[in-house]
Write the structure tokens for this entry.
Amino acid sequence: MNSFKMKMTPYLFIAPAFILLMVFAFLPIVLALIISFTNMDLLGLANWSQISYIGMKNYLELLQDDTFFQAVGNTFFYVIIGVPLAVSSSFIIAYLLNLVSNWISSTFRVIFYMPSVTNIVAIAVIWGFLYNNKYGLFNYILSLLDIAAVPWLDDPFIAKLSLILLAVWKSNGVSMLIFLAALQSIPKMYYEAADIDGANRWQKLIKITLPSMSFATFFVTVTTLIGWFQFFEEPFVLTEGGPLNGTNSIALFIYQEGFQYNEFGYGAAGSFILFAIIITFTLIQFKISKSEQSM
């Protein structure tokens, strides 16, 4: 009996967390998968007898939906441009902060981290003013240089770049702290040995710093990649997917179909396509990381 209690004790400790994970994570995923094979809408939500099983119809319609494919293209554009910018800029900030004195580093850590915890609506108000065509600060600075005003949020291509700039600025804080912790955990003896060998700062960066931070870089890259595939808040609050659907993302498309047009089954199908994309690219990242470690 005592041995049975000893075996069950660890499971009792993890049971609350496991139950919460099942109820608030896995169960909604299963329900969303079931809904994606139905024609569930607002009427069906009120009366379950109105819900019908329609098989793969939602998925087949998505594959013929030009708006959805435009959202997919926009999302990949965000990922291809945004992820390298977000990872590299946060590393550069962390690297520079690691070189300065403690009080300067602490001050700027707070400054760079503040956008990450600031409400997105407040951020949108400020950046909406900065991007304003007539009265915005950016176009005012350009006018001082005799450069024509830029349609920051009115041209589909430029609007995507504008949202990427905002998102990179907002997300730098968290990744910067992770990189900074990794930099500070590198043993100083490595750099002391490099100094004895006459290595310059660039050689120490390439030969010591970057290899020692491989796990932190991998973690930041994977989490950043997942976050950018779920790009939602910036286009939602600043452009609502416009102009001409030019800034719409998959996550925003899912929100629009599910909660604005009340097509819950159609939106759920879109969410599982996004889920499959994220899983695929995450597995690719793990495969690349494992192959690099084995070399």
